[in-house]
Each structure stands twice: as structure tokens, then as C-alpha cells.
Amino acid sequence: MPKRGHPASQVVLFHKPYGVLSQFTPKDGHPSLSGFGLPKGLYPVGRLDRDSEGLLLLTDCGPLQHRLSDPRFAHPRTYLAQVERAPSPEALRRLAAGLVLSDGPTRPCRVRPLKEEPRLPPREPPIRFRKSAPTAWLELTMQEGRNRQVRRMTAAAGHPTLRLVRIALGSLTLKGLEPGQWRRLSEEEARRLWR
Prior knowledge:
The chain is an alpha+beta fold. Helices cover 16% and strands 28% of the residues.
């Protein structure tokens, strides 16, 4: 499974539900990863905030965890973001070109407005609907994963994120997994993470 020289390891793909912490210890009354029957000894690769959903990778292999978290290796991460109001072409250009956030400029990314609402499992609790504030969906693919980066970018462009779902990491997707479900990666899928 791993690159030559690394011991055999486990890699698990988990569909993190809304409201769950990306850690194994509950905190402040919020549920954690410990309630989903995940194999022992795993650690999350990167994080998804409590109020974000979607693909979370976990492994017991430190070198793989480092490789997937290190921006030098540029693993693409794809998100669906429900934002306030439909962004103008100029706002989309700003997002794609990169914005200056409090911790420095972001790398350029791919941004695509979706014509229709994506087919996602319902979120509990659902986003509060307001007739006076229509929403739009964006697909964003970026090569870095800073703390709350997508939310900070869309807010800086004038379109705060209401719902955020990570749907892919490289070629890995959430296909076939409902919120709270997980599966082990095949040897070939795990090998691809080293390339």
C-alpha cells in the first residue's frame, strides 16, 4: 500500500457529518469521531471544521499524513459551498485569482458556479431559508487547506458560506458513502496518494 520503505498502514475515507469534531475526544458537548466505529490508531489528515461536512481521510501512517497535509505536494481538494447571493463574474475572478487573507495571500484555485443545487444528503439542522437572501452554489478546487480557508475566501469576496461540503481529495470522492459512513481504501487507492 505505502511507498517503498514505509510500513503497511491503514487509510480510511470517512463522510463526516455536520456538527462532528475532526478529533476522537468530544469537546464542549459536541460529538467526535469516536462514535462511528472507526479502526483504532487512526488520525485525521487535515481537518474539517465542526460546521463543515464531507470527505475526511484518516490514517495511522505519519509520513502519509505529512505528505497529504504539506502544501508542497499540492493535493487538490474539492468543495461545494452554498453562499449568500449569486457571485458576480468579478467576485468569481477574485476567488479564482487568490485573495489576501489575514494569514497571507491564497493560491489561485478553480471556481465554478453550479447551475443547479447539488444532490447532497440533507443537513441536520438545515440551512435557515430566507426569501430576502437567495443563495448560490459554487464548486471550488484548491491546492491548500488553511484553517477555515473556503469560508474566509468567500466572505472576503462578499459571499459568506452557509454550507460547506468537501466532496473530493484528488481522485477520492464521497461516492457511495452517506454521512457517518466510512470505508478502507483499496491498496491501489492508497498507492495513488503517494504519487
